[in-house]
Amino acid sequence: MPQANNKNTGHWALTLSNNVQEIPQLNAFIDEVCESHDLDPMTSMEMNLALEEAVVNVMTYAYPEGTKGYVDISVQSDNGSLVFVISDSGKPFDPTTREEVDTSLPAEQREIGGLGIFLVRKMMDDIKYEYKDGHNILTLRKKLNQ
């Protein structure tokens, strides 16, 4: 697992293949980032869930079935926030254009999909997407209350 964690600079990086079996490595990575910032368990859980949802979507949908691909996750401390950047070279997909899921409807009346993006929107403070140089780049910002 290529990983560079540097607590001195406040920058961490992780690269995973598009295999959901690698999600425990993502969880351990996010836990390490959260612990280094002394975040409370609820905030750590929310960040883990949001990042897991976003990364699993990349692993599952970005690359054609049977194609090996990668997802890069980097984290930077920035003015009282943690900024997560998720990048992949799969097919372009902008999750920020998805309509909000109507959570007031019973589950059986809702369209399939979109709940993960809904959770990311609720748990993170800012979400931005761009497609640049053949890469999807999803930036998630979480303000820290310290």
What can you see in these coordinates?
- The model has no long low-confidence stretch (mean pLDDT 84).
- A 6-stranded antiparallel β-sheet has the order 1-2-3-4-6-5, with helices on one face.
- With 146 residues, it is α+β, with helices and mostly antiparallel strands.
- The protein is 30% helix and 30% strand.
- The protein has one domain (3-143): 2-Layer Sandwich (Heat Shock Protein 90), CATH 3.30.565.
- The chain has helices at residues 23-36, 41-61, 115-123; strands spanning 3-6, 11-17, 70-78, 81-88, 126-132, 135-143.
- The termini are far apart.
- The protein contains 3 helices and 6 strands.
Keywords:
six-stranded antiparallel sheet, Heat Shock Protein 90, 146 residues, 30% strand, single chain
H and E order: EEHHEEHEE
Which CATH top level class fits?
Alpha Beta
Overall mean pLDDT: 84
Question: What would you call the shape?
Answer: globular
Q: What topology, given as strand order, has the largest sheet?
A: 1-2-3-4-6-5
Largest sheet: 6 strands, antiparallel
CATH superfamily (homologous) name: Histidine kinase-like ATPase, C-terminal domain
Number of domains: 1
The structure class reads: alpha+beta
Percent helix, as a range, is 25-40%
Percentage of residues in DSSP E strands:
25-35%
